[in-house]
Amino acid sequence: MSNELLLSSVIFVLVGVVLVSVFLLSRFLGPQNKDDVEKNTVYESGVSHPIGGTKLRFAVKFYLVAILFVLFDVEIIFMFPWAVNVKELGILGLTEMFMFMALLFGGLIYIYKKKALSWD
């Protein structure tokens, strides 16, 4: 076994031991107010007494819109470095970016045709 592997194993185990000990110390040494009913009640956006239960099921549309937002947000992450280096990339870089944008625009058209962005 090499020295680097041994050293990294020891560091990994030590970090684990330190983390576990910090969590256990905070659990036993920290304040424990289990009888405070007001502290354990739900508080969301200024509403002290929410209507309905907490086990409500959300529509899939919320998750779909969130995933689509992340997808098109990643598009911007890819487009920014291209915009910075557009002169060095030349016509090939321009063609590749237009192909990338056409692919994403095709995905947007598909999403629009499937009516994934329309709310009922």
Automatic annotation (TrEMBL):
Its membrane topology: Multi-pass membrane protein
Principal EC category: translocase
Compartments, record wording: Cell membrane; Membrane
GO molecular function term, any single one: quinone binding
Transmembrane feature ranges: 6-25, 62-83, 89-112
Keyword vocabulary terms for this entry: Cell membrane, Membrane, NAD, Quinone, Translocase, Transmembrane, Transmembrane helix, Transport, Ubiquinone
E.C. designation(s): 7.1.1.-
Superkingdom, taxonomy of origin: Bacteria
Catalytic activity as recorded in UniProt: a quinone + NADH + 5 H(+)(in) = a quinol + NAD(+) + 4 H(+)(out)
Short name of one Pfam family: Oxidored_q4
Gene Ontology CC: NADH dehydrogenase complex; plasma membrane
Entries under InterPro entries matching the protein: NAD(P)H_OxRDtase_bac/plastid, NADH_UbQ/plastoQ_OxRdtase_su3, NDAH_ubi_oxred_su3_sf
Binding partners and assembly: NDH-1 is composed of 14 different subunits. Subunits NuoA, H, J, K, L, M, N constitute the membrane sector of the complex.
Functional summary from the UniProt entry: NDH-1 shuttles electrons from NADH, via FMN and iron-sulfur (Fe-S) centers, to quinones in the respiratory chain. The immediate electron acceptor for the enzyme in this species is believed to be ubiquinone. Couples the redox reaction to proton translocation (for every two electrons transferred, four hydrogen ions are translocated across the cytoplasmic membrane), and thus conserves the redox energy in a proton gradient.
Family of the protein in this entry: Belongs to the complex I subunit 3 family.
Protein name: NADH-quinone oxidoreductase subunit A
